[in-house]
Specification:
mainly alpha, Arc Repressor Mutant, subunit A, two-stranded antiparallel ribbon
Length: 148
């Protein structure tokens, strides 16, 4: 499975908001500049993230965006689904009618299992995990053995 640019940029945007969740709302211009992302793209992504109730906007001077919940409660899976839709490695997993062989396909169970595993992994990682991981990378500890 390949995560689209939409999903990757949305994750970078959400991690930036998570890093600053205790501060003032963050403008998309700041997010774009800090992460070398196109602001126009972030504007589009913000619509889906807002519709999915993952972010909220604050209007006016000093306005911007902030997370609707703590970073430890928002998963990578939620962000991914808000930007690209359901996690689906093969169309027939969620829409069996797209394939004439879905009823008797000997591979479909493999696709379903892969889909389930990918979903579990993405739903098992929170924005707080990504922020913490980024802190470790920035401090030079990224290559140390995992403590779990």
């Amino acid at each position: 499975m390949k995560l689209s640019t939409r999903a990757r940029y949305a994750l970078r945007m959400m991690v930036e908001l998570a890093r600053r969740q205790d501060a003032e709302p963050v403008s998309l211009s700041e997010v774009a500049e800090t992460n070398s992302l196109p602001k126009r793209y972030l504007d589009q992504l913000a619509l889906g993230l807002k519709a999915s109730a993952l972010i909220t906007s604050v209007r006016g001077r000093g306005g911007g965006y902030r997370l609707t919940r703590p970073a430890g409660e928002i998963t990578v899976g939620e962000v991914t689904r808000a930007t690209i839709g359901p996690i689906n490695v093969v169309d027939c997993v969620h829409r069996p009618r797209t394939c004439t062989r879905s009823e008797d396909c000997e591979f479909r169970w493999v696709y379903e299992r892969v889909n389930r595993q990918v979903t579990e992994v993405l739903d098992g990682i929170t924005l707080a995990d990504l922020v913490a991981r980024g802190d470790l990378v920035n401090e030079g500890f990224a290559n140390t053995p995992c403590s779990r």
